[in-house]
Amino acid sequence: MTAFAPMGATLQTVSPAAASIKMRVDDSFAPAGMGKEFVSQPRKPLSEYAGASMEMDVASFFRGEAPKAWDPMQFSELYKVSGNNPDVAWLREAELKHGRICMLAFAGILCQGGGVHLPGDMWVTAGNHWANAPAEIAAVNPSAINQIAISIGIIEGVTCKGIADMWFGVTTIREPGDIGFDPLRLMPKDPVAAEKMKTKELKNGRMAMIAVMGLCFNEIVPGAVPM
Predict the structure, then answer these.
(1) Structural domain contains residue 209
(2) Could you list the residue range(s) of the whole structural domain that residue 163 is in?
(3) What is the pLDDT of residues 120-140, one digit of tens each?
(4) What is the C-alpha to C-alpha distance for residues 79 and 40, in angstroms, rounded to an integer?
(5) Between these two residues, 42 and 206, which has the higher pLDDT value?
(6) How many domains does the chain have?
(7) What is the mean pLDDT of residues 209-225?
(8) What is the spatial distance between Cα 206 and Cα 98, in angstroms, rounded to a whole number?
(9) Residue in 213, 214, 182 with CA at minimum distance from that of residue 198
(10) What is the biggest distance separating any 2 CA atoms in the chain, rounded to whole angstroms?
(11) C-alpha distances out from residue 226 to 108, 157, 212, 217, 221, Å
(12) pTM higher than 0.85 for the full model?
């Protein structure tokens, strides 16, 4: 008598079952009267946001169906599963913030590598290497790093208005990414032109995130990324 089933038979049984598992998005599983009505309210889908990559849905094109926004991991559907998951609005806010930070970071890395820095000896570092710059500056003048950290905290505090509401898809306070800062007035007044400008910023931010990640990997594993 065999105590255990053959491994091959077990894998054949488990594989079809695992393939049939799908994320349910038709029920938030929140009890009625305890958030179900709020979580299940109509939300703005990913396809209505600027920069939604509809052209990536090649499968729908060949099936003759309307293309869907490219989201292979279904992050934009997570809010349908539970109120503990963020709405697309919150995800877009996070994507824009990370993209903007990385665009500034990439420009800063290039400037640091080229020897461009603020006036004063405290900002001069050995070899103009971006990865060592914060530690070297902190060793010479700790107050400089403290000022940067405090400035970041102030900016985060001023621009955090409405973020908690975005988690649940509420954008009445402000739209994702709109922090009311446009000193050069680059955002057009025309809605169509504004959508194009939003898409340009989003794509440049995505490219910057990939670029900065590549520079970080190359710093950890020299030669990992062609430079």
Answers:
(1) yes
(2) 83-220
(3) 777 777 667 888 888 888 888
(4) 9
(5) 206
(6) 1
(7) 88
(8) 9
(9) 182
(10) 83
(11) 20, 38, 13, 11, 11
(12) no
